[in-house]
Amino acid sequence: LESALKLVPDAKSVYGVSVVHPLDKKNEAQARLDLQKWQGRLGFRYLSDMSLEEMLAAISGAPRETIILYLAVSADNTGKTFNPRDVAERLSRVSNGPVFGLYESILGYGIAGGSLVSYDGIGTQAGQLALSFLKIGSVPSKIPAILDVPGVLEFDWRQLKRWNLSVDAVPPGSIIINREYTLWERNRTEMIVAFFVLVVQALLIVSLVERRAQRQRAERQLAQ
Question: Within a 10 A sphere around the Cβ of 141, how many other Cβ atoms?
Fold first, then answer.
């Protein structure tokens, strides 16, 4: 939410999207706890214990100054199960404001981005921990209870453009995927070099023309 507010500073409310799966409910409980410090500034509504259709209807009716915080949906209260990526895409299609998420695996499927859980990062750190056990042996007292893997700030350029969010407001050090570069951004170095080559050529041509004119004047004077 902190990174989302840098991109949507005028936001007045936050819709948290989560449903009945135990992991989703755990995420929602953690979100309610972590987001308390913004209670005085923003209005919060948690869309839980709903069917997916009810959730989509609530999102489509949200005010434009709303941030959608997608905690992940893998099942709804009707018992139907879903691919969280598919839900993210459907939320993005009906939403009146940008959708931010928690998982790197959903980036590129409708969310603008956020501080995302990276499964690559978790796997890398778990692998490094396993390798250290193989080298020096595992000491129960030194085995961490939790792998402390920080979130990765990542954003989807297409969603930033869709919602007219400033790329300059993206937190420093963020990764931006799907970025489309202008001709100038893609070929800046080549264009600068070409410009200087043209300038040098123009100066040489002017110099040659001036020398020719001087020679012609000298020849006329000699002839006279």
Answer: 5
Give exposure, 20-30, as e/b (b: 16+ Cβ within 10 Å). Answer: bbeebeebbee
pLDDT confidence of residue 184: 63
Tell me the two tokens of residue 28.
């929602």
**pLDDT for residue 87:** 93
CA distance 124 to 39: 36
d(CA 84, CA 82): 6
CB within 8 Å of 180: residues ≥ 6 apart: 157, 158
Tell me if 95 sits within 8 A of 62, measured CB to CB. Answer: yes
The pTM (predicted TM-score) of the whole model is 0.75
* Residues in the chain, pLDDT under 50: none
pLDDT in tens, 181-190: 767 656 677 7
* DSSP β-bridge partners for residue 68: 15, 99
